[in-house]
Amino acid sequence: MVAIVGKPNVGKSTLLNALVGQKISITSRKAQTTRHRITGIRTEGATQFVFADTPGFQTRHSTALNKSLNKAVMGTIGDVDVVMLVVEAGRFTPADAKVLGLLKPGIPVVLVANKLDEVGRRAELAPWLQEVAAKAQFAEIVPMSAKNPKDVQRVFGILEKYLPEQPWFYGEDELTDRSEKFLAGETVREKLFRFTGDELPYTSTVVIDKFEEEPSPKFGRMVRIAATIVVERDGHKAMVIGEKGERLKRIGMEARQELEKLMDCKVFLEVWVKVRSGWADDEARVRSFGYE
Ligand SMILES: Nc1nc2c(ncn2[C@@H]2O[C@H](COP(=O)(O)OP(=O)(O)OP(=O)(O)O)[C@@H](O)[C@H]2O)c(=O)[nH]1
C-alpha cells in the first residue's frame, strides 16, 4: 500500500496515472481537482503496488468541504507501507511542511521532487536537496518528472524495497476498485474543468443522478447516465452552458466518448446544470454529495 500525498497542484494525479499506466484519477491545471481517495493498482512481476491518491491538502480556506478533504488525507496516510510525499523540485513551502507534519511516524516517506523538467539546470538543485534532506528522515529523495516514463519506471524499484511480503490484495489485471458510477462523475468533472479553464471555482461539482445498465442486442451492453453539474452562481451556470449551449454539449460529448472507451460499452449521457449557492459551506450538503 502506497499513499501519494502533497499539497494541491504538485502533480499527484499525474504521477498516479503514470504509475498505474492508465488514466484513473483526473488531472487539471486548477488546484484541488481530486476530491476522493482513488486507488490505482499496478502489478509488476511479483509485486503489486496499491496506490491511494489524496486530495490536495487545503490550508487556506476552512469550509466544510475543505474539512472533509483534510479528513480524507488523514484517513489515507495511517495504514500504508510507504508514503510518497510529492513537492515541486526546488520548492518546499510552508504548505508542504504542513503535509509533512501530518504523516505518521514510523512509516517510511519517499520525498518526490516532481516537475524536474521545469528546473533549468540540475546543478542548481543540489543546495535545495541538501536543505530538504535536513527537514525530516526521508527514506529517499527522488528528483523526477511524472511526465517522464523513465523516471516513473524507476519509482517501482524504489517503492518495492518498502513493501512487505504478503499475498496480493487484488487480481493481476485490476486497475482500480472504484465503481463505474464514480468514474462517470470524475470523467464529467474532468471535462467540465478542462473546458471552463480557470474561470470556474473548484467548489463546482458533479452529481450522478442516474446510472442504469441494460443489455442491448445491438451494442452488447448499454449504460444510461444522467449527471448534474452543481455550481454556486447563475453566472457560473451561464459559463458552463456557453454560447448557444456549445460548451455544455462539448463537455457531454467528450465525457461520453471517454466513458465508452473506459467501460467498453454504449453510453447515453445527459448533463444538466444547477445552481446551489453556498453548498461548499453546508456540511450536510457536502455529505449528501458523497464527501464524508
Ligand atoms: N512540467 C511538469 N508538469 C507537471 C508534472 N507533473 C504534473 N504536472 C502538471 O501539474 C499540474 C497539476 O497536476 P495534478 O496531477 O493535477 O496535481 P495534483 O497534485 O494531483 O493536484 P490536486 O488534484 O489539486 O491535488 C498539471 O497541469 C500537470 O500537467 C511534471 O513532472 N512536469
UniProtKB/TrEMBL annotation:
Domain Era-type G per the UniProt entry, residue ranges: 1-165
Subcellular location: Cytoplasm; Cell membrane
Residue ranges, annotated region (G4): 114-117
Gene3D superfamilies registered for this protein in UniProt: 3.30.300.20, P-loop containing nucleotide triphosphate hydrolases
Positions of the UniProt region annotated as G2: 32-36
Topological relation to the membrane, as annotated: Peripheral membrane protein
Coiled coil: none
Keyword Nucleotide-binding: yes
Alphabetical list of Pfam families matching this protein: KH_2, MMR_HSR1
Domain KH type-2: 224-277
UniProt-annotated stretches for the region G1: 6-13
Source domain of life: Bacteria
Region (G5): 144-146
Residues binding GTP, per UniProt: 6-13, 53-57, 114-117
Keywords, sorted A to Z: Cell membrane, Cytoplasm, GTP-binding, Membrane, Nucleotide-binding, Ribosome biogenesis, RNA-binding, rRNA-binding
G3: region residues: 53-56
Family: Belongs to the TRAFAC class TrmE-Era-EngA-EngB-Septin-like GTPase superfamily. Era GTPase family.
Assembly: Monomer.
Function: An essential GTPase that binds both GDP and GTP, with rapid nucleotide exchange. Plays a role in 16S rRNA processing and 30S ribosomal subunit biogenesis and possibly also in cell cycle regulation and energy metabolism.
Protein name: GTPase Era
Organism in which the protein naturally occurs: Ramlibacter aquaticus
Native organism taxonomy: Bacteria, Pseudomonadati, Pseudomonadota, Betaproteobacteria, Burkholderiales
